[in-house]
Amino acid sequence: MSTAVFTRNLDLWTETYSISFYLNYLARWPDLCLVQEAPNGKMMGYVLGKAEGHAQEWHGHVTAITVAPEYRRLGLARKMMDELERISTEVYNGYFVDLYVRCANHLAINMYEGMGYSVYRRVAQYYSRLPHEKGGRDQEDAFDMRKPLPRDTMRRSVRPNGREIIIPRDQAP
């Protein structure tokens, strides 16, 4: 994974973490940290993932995914998500893959739904305000979106009414 990941994100929607956070992921789950680079070496996008949970909650988790604006709509996000899902299935034997997305990020929600993810629940006040926002609430809700993997034969990671189920931030992993 390029050091460019440590110095900036490719969009305003992606959370920025400390260098030690990224290094921890690279040390523990190197196979779930993927980068797409252009032939000229410029970073086009990356996904940062991990494996977590217990028993039937054992799963792959997408901590961050981003694609630079000039490389969007080329299928890079889908390609990286497909690979993370494959590794979550074949290497980690997970039941599902999950991710958190701001409820206001309609483009991302639509993209994830197109990839087979659905809203499992809403997490109240999960995110801090975006850096470019002025005023408004200090916190923003997130959707916990999940996609079942082959091991989830009973499809327990899917709920038809996930948008209606709201949990407080301290109950989310």
Q: Outline the low-pLDDT stretches.
A: 2-7
**Number of beta strands:** 7
Mean pLDDT: 88
β-strand amount:
25-35%
**Main β-sheet: number of strands, strand sense, barrel status?**
7 strands, mixed
Radius of gyration: 16 Å
What structural category do the secondary elements indicate?
A: alpha/beta
Tell me the helix content.
10-25%
Biggest sheet strand line-up = 1-2-3-4-6-5-7
Globular, elongated, flat, extended or rod-shaped: what is the shape?
A: globular
* DSSP summary: helix tally: 4
Whole-Å distance between the termini?
25 Å
- The string of secondary-structure elements, in order, is HHEEEHEHEEE
Key traits:
globular; seven-stranded mixed sheet; 4 helices; 22% helix; 173 residues; alpha/beta
Topology of helices and strands:
Layout: H1 4-7, H2 19-28, E1 33-37, E2 43-52, E3 59-67, H3 76-90, E4 96-102, H4 106-114, E5 118-128, E6 139-148, E7 166-167
Parallel strand pairs: 3-4, 5-7
Antiparallel strand pairs: 1-2, 2-3, 4-6, 5-6
Give a written overview of the molecule.
With 173 residues, the chain is α/β, with parallel strands linked by helices. The protein is globular. The longest helix is centred in the middle third of the chain and has 15 residues, at 76-90. It has 4 helices and 7 strands; from the N terminus they run ααβββαβαβββ. Strands 1-2-3-4-6-5-7 form a 7-stranded mixed β-sheet, with helices on both faces. The protein has helices at residues 4-7, 19-28, 76-90, 106-114, and strands at residues 33-37, 43-52, 59-67, 96-102, 118-128, 139-148, 166-167.
